[in-house]
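We close this part of the discussion by returning to an individual protein. In the encoding step, the backbone of a single protein was reduced to a row of integers, each denoting a local shape. The sequence in question and its structure tokens are set out directly beneath this paragraph.
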Amino acid sequence: MKNVPILAFILIALGCASGPQKKREYSVIFDSAKLLNSVQHDSLRAIISELKQNVGSQIGVNIIPSLRGQNIDEYSIQVADRLGLGRKKFNDGILLTIAIEDRMMRIEVGTGLENIVRDEIASRINREVMAPKFRKGNYCLGIYKGIDSLKSLIESNKDRIGEIPEHRKKRLN
């Protein structure tokens, strides 16, 4: 039985090494670029967990070395679909994708949060909150501030979670 913790560690390590998979409760932060240390990882996970516990919405972070020529929009959508972030009923998940070598990032927003975190707001968070920290090499602080901005928006508008986005309402009429 002494080998059980070692076996569990190996299984978790193998799961993380294979990249993001279906939703897992033990982590919503995938760092294949090995950018974060364990204290930084735990700090980010704490703020993400607080949102999930208080509101139900979920934020995931996917840090990769490079997109390897892929379009960041398409890549983020594929990963977000695989992870299944947020509650199914509300589609209230967000994925923050950061490609270090490509110097690109994207905030992929589930339809249940699109009235709260509109494209222009996500873009502003990228440009004004995260990018300045990234340029100084402080990735963890940039990610933390970005997540905190998203968390604050969601918490202050939690009554709007799950609303049909305005642009989709127009298509339905």
